[in-house]
Amino acid sequence: MPLLATLMGRFAQERPFDGLSVAACLHITAETAMLVRLLQAGGAAVSLAASNPLSTQDDIAAALACSYGIAVFARAGVDRRGYYRHIELALTRPQPGPDLIIDDGGDLTGTLHTQVPELLPHVRGGCESTTTGVIRLRRMAAEGALAFPVIAANDTAVKRMVDNTCGTGQSVIDGILRATNTLLAGKTVVVAGFGASGRGVATCASGFGAHVIVTEVDPVRALDASLRGFAVLPMSQAAPLGEIFVTATGSADVIGAGHLAAMRDGAILANAGHFDVEIDVRALADLAVAVRHDVRPHVDAYELPDGRTLLLLAEGRVVNLVAAEGHPPEVMDLAFGLEALALAWLATNTGKLEPGVHEVPADIDAEAARLVLASTGTSIDSLTPAQLAYRESWRTGS
Amino acid sequence: MSVEHQVADLSLAAFGRKEIQLAEHEMPGLMAVRAEYAPSQPLRGARITGSLHMTIQTAVLIETLTAIGAEVRWASCNIFSTQDHAAAAIVVGPDGTPDDPTGVPVFAWKGETLEEYWHCTEQALTWPGEDGPNMILDDGGDATLFVHKGAEYEKAGGVPTPAEDDSEEWRVILDRLRNSLADHPGKWTKVTAAIKGVTEETTTGVHRLYEMARAGSLLFPAINVNDSVTKSKFDNKYGCRHSLIDGINRGTDVLIGGKVALVCGYGDVGKGCSESLRGQGARVIVTEVDPICALQAAMDGYQVATLEDVIGTADIFVTATGNRNVITADQMSRMKHQAIVGNIGHFDNEIDMAGLARIPGVRRTNVKPQVDEWTFAGTNGEPDHSIIVLSEGRLLNLGNATGHPSFVMSNSFTNQVMAQVELFTKPEEYPVDVYTLPKHLDEKVARLHLDALGVHLTELTKEQADYIGVPVEGPYKSENYRY
Fold first, then answer.
1. What residues of B are in contact with residue A186 (Cβ under 8 Å)?
2. Choice among B112, B235, B268, B350 that is catalytic
3. Helices marked H in B253-325 — which ranges?
4. A185, A208, A230 member nearest B283 (Cβ)
5. Which of A316, B91, B231, B375 is found 20 to 30 A from A86 (Cα to Cα)?
6. How far apart are CA B178 and CA B172, in angstroms?
């Protein structure tokens, strides 16, 4: 993770988080461990909870607690109550509460506002890592409920490109392959949602030789998918055609009872969105006459009354994290590098942002891209003074 | 003495010569062959009749043949595919002028009628003061067909009367042979006896040759150039990949991204077409009759359907099958309004154009050369609707664009030259039958094109070569290797 390694040196020197505490709610993976250690190197006291009950890699959690003195509250396979309890612990561990937060999905921010609102005045701001969380936070902000500024670290041009499109695209396919060992070539893959992630999944699946159908609600994205050569259909029409379904919408019940009822025998259902609500798993359970759990690891076979079987991967949770290893480190390197840079900016620019959801400052995005390029030995051109002058003047045309 | 010719306009020669010079740079195989064989002149004494699209690239082929000793007469093998400036430049020659041409006899112009087309073919086959060619370089097999039918009817004592359902083109051929037999009895028997062999460029012509060989009616040996790896896998795939899109764009300028494109046939041509349509953002659907090709298409991620499944939904239809009546007139009448229909197979029988013209109430409106709108009268109160047919159902990459790019044709044509040299110089090695070029020549053709692309080839060590049981210098693969 060359970007985080570069920042590690810089933060150790500049100490942007000196004396500050950071509460983080993230998927606990090796890459997250690097981020946490980076914040620590920058002077922060970090407490960490998992952002998904299934995604914790217990060995990483143990190493962070034992070897690096991080306050970790996470265990793979924890139940819902335990999951939220862990988040609360991560929030209340620092006294008198965290100065900064990092969230992934908005559960930490939600818990902070609803369960321990007494900590809110102390919080300077935070970063949100994923689209689902940003959507939630924008709704919070719209209701006036968000008490501090949050930088939407998911939502920069560079992050969308590298993390959502490339990282999710590749690792969702990885998860499906590891879980099912199915051949993608020649299969019909239905991708719900053609945002940054869905576009990546569709492109990767197509590269494997799959025939990809996209479903969308947004006409702009639907047109984009269509112009890239993907078939675009409503889910009701795609449902009987697909052999593999991937939801990547950030919405709920994208695959519902009616769609499930129309699917082909052996259809594979996977979710790439943050929460397990995109595939209506309850409806699937209601339809089924029997469920055979773990026919392969992370594959549950739902048997329907007419003898058809539908295969649900990872219980409908993020398939790339549950059945594979999440994003490759290069992707997380950029995502977390951006987040660390944004958090450091918040630490040193307290009070400059109003409560609400904010974009990552453009120069931070560019800086992250620049550092990644430098780490790969890629050189780029710079504008000459004459080119700069041309670009900034309206007087010169052809 | 002036050069015999029937071309559109000799004043186009200067433009043609400039394009030939550009093409020479892109045809390293042919230029290397010229350099290698110019001293030995292996085709000295060869009288070659060529029946092959008279384009700029073909011009470089013709001048390669003459550079290594051959005399040449040329006709195009398609009524639309001649590039008039190329034809003019070949007649004028590098050293002549339009007033004093010193090049090669050519009988070809863009937009021939069928009568004119077969007249040109006959002219190319008729050597003044001599019996005829002693070699044929064919593309689609029309020159070979003409001399074979001539000899056959001479033997039979006359030309048959066309049957009721014979095509218009067949009637034209029979008429021309009937006149020829009347004017020059015994001509084609003598011509065919003198011919040492034919080298055939394309799948369609190769079909005919194998059929004739099977039936025992083939009169001279043939080399199937089409099935050289450096021809079919390159020309058919990479050439069509390039020129299909070029033809559709020049013909219609329609945005391909987002459209549903149907490709009939997933052979080498269909594979190239599908890839480039997909590359433009089209959603490509393939039709196939061969389960292997159909499975290949599916594994490459294309939907495989029948034409009937998608007749009302596809925006672009491309035939690449080498078969006939792949798209029927009735199917065309049920296509979407403004659907684009084109063929990239050799002959114009993949799309039933004659049937289309016979549909009651159908109207043809010429939009521009090689682009026709065919309008179907609405029935039951529905409005009229129309489709766009490119190049009258003839191969649209040559009709609407300029065919394959020079580099691709350099591969094909270098095979042609090698094959001409083989048949002309080693007749004893080729009794009457259909052959493919030996693999070492196929590999040589590829080798001649590597430098131009900056390809650095790795050499086998003696040890490695022994390990896989091949000579260090090749050939590297068994005859049945599929590349």
1. 295, 298-299, 301
2. B235
3. 268-279, 291-299, 307-310
4. A230
5. A316
6. 10
Mean pLDDT for B48-63 is 97
Average pLDDT by consecutive 10-residue portion of chain A (398 residues)?
A: 92 96 95 94 96 93 94 95 97 93 96 96 94 92 96 87 88 94 95 96 95 96 94 97 96 96 97 93 97 96 97 96 84 89 93 94 92 87 91 82
Q: Tell me the C-alpha distance between B165 and B177, whole Å.
A: 19
Q: How many CA atoms lie within 13 A of B402 on its CB side?
A: 14
Upper half-sphere CA count for residue B374 (Cβ side, 13 Å): 29
B298: closest chain A residue by CA: A186
Active-site residue flag, B231: yes
Q: Is the pLDDT of residue B433 over 70?
A: yes
pLDDT given for residue A164 in this prediction = 85
Chain A residues touching residue B278 (CB < 8 angstroms): 229
Whole-structure pTM value:
0.76
- Sequence-separated (6 or more) residues with CB below 8 Å from residue B60: B20, B23, B24, B27, B30, B406, B410, B413
Question: Does residue B302 sit in helix, strand or coil?
Answer: coil
Nearest Cβ partner for A229 among B282, B295, B298: B282
B301, A185: Cβ pair inside 8 Å? Answer: yes
pLDDT at B322: 87
Count of CB atoms situated within 10 Å of the CB of A40 = 20
Which amino acid would we find at residue B442? D
> What sections of B280-351 are H helices per DSSP?
291-299, 307-310, 329-333
The CA-based diameter of chain A, rounded to the nearest angstrom, is: 73
A158/chain B closest Cα distance in angstroms: 24
In angstroms, the CA B300 to CA B279 distance is 13
- Whether residues A185 and B299 touch (CB distance < 8 A) is answered with yes
Question: Are A262 and A251 a contacting pair, CB within 8 Å?
Answer: no
d(CA B170, CA B149): 11
Confidence (pLDDT) at B354:
93
Chain B interface with A: residues with Cβ < 8 Å = 255, 257-258, 278, 280-284, 295, 298-303
Strand order in the sheet with A268-271: A231-232, A211-215, A188-192, A244-247, A268-271, A309-313, A299-303, A290-296
Question: Which 3 state secondary structure label does DSSP give A333?
Answer: helix
Q: How many CA atoms lie within 13 A of B327 on its CB side?
A: 32
Q: In A125-139, which positions are buried (b, 16+ CB within 10 angstroms) versus exposed (e)?
A: bbbbbbbbbbbbbbe
Residue in B with minimal Cα distance to A206: B301
Going by pLDDT thresholds of 50, 70 and 90, the confidence category of residue B130 is: low
Nearest to B303 among A185, A211, A228 (CB): A211
Quick check: is B346 catalytic? yes
- The contacts of residue A29 (CB under 8 Å, 6+ apart) are A55, A57, A60, A321, A325, A326, A332
* Chain B hits for A231, Cβ within 8 Å: 283, 303
**pLDDT of B232 over the 60 cut:** yes
Strand, helix or coil for residue B368 = strand
| Helix/strand/coil for B107 | strand
Q: How far apart are CA A312 and CA A302, in angstroms?
A: 7
Phi, psi of B304 (to 5 degrees): -110, 120
> Is B236 marked active-site?
yes
Angstrom CA distances, B444 to A328, B202, B237, B409, stand at: 44, 20, 20, 15
Longest C-alpha distance within chain B, in Å? 78
Residue A338 neighbours by CB distance under 10 Å: 28
pLDDT of residue B403: 84
Tens digit of each residue's pLDDT (9 = 90 or more) over B338-381: 999 999 998 889 999 999 999 999 999 999 999 999 999 988 88
B456 is catalytic: no
Which of B51, B123, B226, B406 is the catalytic position? B226
